[in-house]
Backbone:
């Protein structure tokens, strides 16, 4: 981004970067990879996803609680069993699962929550972050970009039509037992129609299909000719 950007633009960019997996610039715009909309965790402006961190049980190590809104209350993502493993004192504080179910995050954690480090996520979509002279606006990418997490982004004119295209890949197989893996994306090419409009190209048409646990993708030059290739890093797999 250019110098002279507004304080509002900086604030929005900082907020988006806290919630994202991958970031790639198009001129002075940004493609921002995120969890997508097909995941266990949800977030919105009115009901953000929250993370609390503090030494809640004063044992010398930080404890992390993920939280969400349920109706008008903020409640932990994890249930009584997992939360009790984090804070053993909850076993005696909440005798039954029913008692725990009716408690909010303040009742569960207690007074130490007021001093806790707290972060909020308001958007999990993969987006185009448009920069109009320092004023940033959010434009979600097509639904195919929201099928799973995005960890790798390449911006390149793949079809040589003079417009930038976007190549995305990701997924997230390495999750906790109670969290379903994010495995619904084969990776997608998005063909640029204008500077800010992109359309998804099916994998059988683009030839790009990586339905794996992809951690990054990078554009490389091929030695034998002037063409470019895509290097795909798969977790515990071959390049």
Residues:
């Amino acid at each position: 981004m250019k110098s002279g950007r507004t304080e509002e633009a900086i604030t929005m960019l900082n907020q988006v970067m806290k919630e994202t997996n991958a970031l790639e610039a198009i001129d002075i715009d940004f493609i921002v990879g995120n969890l997508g909309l097909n995941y266990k965790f949800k977030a919105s402006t009115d009901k953000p996803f929250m993370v609390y961190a503090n030494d809640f049980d004063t044992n010398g190590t930080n404890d992390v609680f993920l939280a969400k809104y349920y109706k008008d209350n903020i409640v932990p993502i994890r249930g009584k069993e997992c939360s009790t493993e984090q804070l053993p004192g909850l076993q005696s504080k909440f005798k039954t699962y029913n008692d725990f179910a009716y408690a909010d995050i303040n009742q569960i954690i207690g007074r130490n929550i007021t001093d806790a480090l707290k972060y909020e996520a308001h958007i999990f979509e993969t987006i185009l972050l448009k920069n109009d002279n320092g004023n940033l606006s959010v434009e979600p990418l097509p639904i195919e970009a929201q099928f799973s997490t995005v960890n790798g982004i390449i911006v390149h004119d793949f079809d040589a039509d003079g417009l930038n295209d976007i190549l995305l890949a990701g997924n997230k197989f390495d999750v906790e037992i109670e969290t379903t893996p994010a495995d619904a994306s084969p990776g997608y090419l998005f063909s640029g129609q204008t500077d800010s409009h992109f359309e998804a190209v099916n994998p059988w048409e683009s030839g790009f299909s990586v339905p794996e646990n992809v951690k990054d993708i990078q554009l490389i030059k091929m030695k034998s000719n002037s063409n470019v290739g895509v290097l795909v890093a798969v977790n515990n797999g071959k390049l």
Remarks:
- The first strand starts at residue 22 and ends at 26.
- Residues 7-43+127-234 form one domain.
- Residues 219 and 230 are 5 Å apart (CA to CA).
